[in-house]
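Spend some time on the protein that follows and explain the fold to me:
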Amino acid sequence: TIKVPAGQEFVKTWEVQNTGNMHWRQRTYRCMDEDLVLARRNSDGSLTPMVDANLRPLEREVACPDTPPGGFARISVRFHAPSLPCTAISLWKMYDKDGNQCFPQFSGVWCKVRVMSL
């Protein structure tokens, strides 16, 4: 978890490795925040959805550099932090050039921040 000032813009960069045997070409990462539901576990084990401020990405999709097997790619997203102190998260998944999600069995990459008051 990284700390960011409330209401400020910042850049999150992930470094991902292509551990497969196919060259990644024309791939993108898409924001999946609409599919993200944050919930609190109650003492009886049930879940109660929480309203939580998500990070606001300045773009909803970013390019993934072409990456050969064994290679590394750096993916950067600019975010605008919520204006009030909180913990916020944003989830991103890779898609191919035809719009198919890559690696659906994995959670993708995410950015979790602790938003601090100025």
